[in-house]
Write a structure and sequence with these properties.
Length: 228
């Protein structure tokens, strides 16, 4: 047996349903509002933290020095061109004939270098006899000691039993140095070369003088080679 609802009960049921739906919608709206506010609050906190981090990482900007002003570039000098009118007469004109026929013979120009006269080098006079003759430092005795100390008897002369005197001529310069060493009379076997070597080793002499002035003077020394 069916129970029939009265129209009033049906209307109350619909009102209750709509009320429940409205309550659910209201609760949903309130929940969304709170969610949005909490999201905005968290977002704001994150933004503040980001700003703080950025402020900590900021580097102080140093002041850059302004570049020194460069001196102004020199103004280019303009070349002045003077225009000569056609009717102006030019003095000292030079006529150049560049027309040459094929049959004309042209002489070949040969350059001749000018002769340069060489200056003759005049050496000072070499004296053989002067008022004050050259002298070895310390005299003849010291020269003998010097020769005996430094001379080396050549092996060839030793093996060939060569002995004798080698006469060596040289020039004592005004400063006492020895130059132009030559053998006037030798004995061979390497003794001549050894005599030249000994003279070239000599210290500066006391130069020869003529009228109180040091001059170039020729001098001859005998060097004795003797086997014992």
């Amino acid at each position: 047996m069916e129970v029939k609802k009265s129209p009033k009960a049906d209307l109350d049921s619909k009102r209750l349903t709509f009320a429940l739906i409205g309550l659910v919608v209201s609760l949903f709206i309130v929940w969304r509002v709170f969610e949005i506010k909490s999201y905005d609050k968290r977002t704001l906190e994150n933004l503040q933290r980001t700003v703080e981090i950025i402020e900590e990482e900021m580097v102080e900007i140093t002041k850059q020095e302004a570049p020194k002003p460069q001196p102004p570039a020199p103004k280019p000098q303009a070349t002045q061109i003077q225009v000569v009118e056609d009717d102006v007469e030019v003095e000292d004109e030079i006529d150049i004939n560049a027309e040459v026929s094929q049959e004309e013979i042209i002489e070949e120009y040969v350059y001749e270098a000018p002769e340069i006269e060489e200056e003759e080098i005049v050496e000072a006079e070499i004296f053989t006899v002067v008022e004050q003759m050259p002298e070895f430092p310390g005299g003849a005795a010291e020269m003998t000691k010097f020769i005996q100390k430094n001379i080396k008897y050549p092996m060839m002369a030793r093996e060939s039993d060569i002995q004798g005197r080698v006469y060596v001529n040289f020039v004592v310069e005004p400063d006492g140095s020895v130059s132009n060493v030559t053998v006037m009379r030798g004995i061979g076997g390497g003794c001549d070369e050894e005599a030249i070597r000994i003279v070239n080793m000599m210290p500066k002499w006391n130069p020869g003088k003529q009228r109180g002035v040091a001059v170039r003077c020729s001098f001859t020394v005998p060097i004795v080679f003797r086997l014992q």
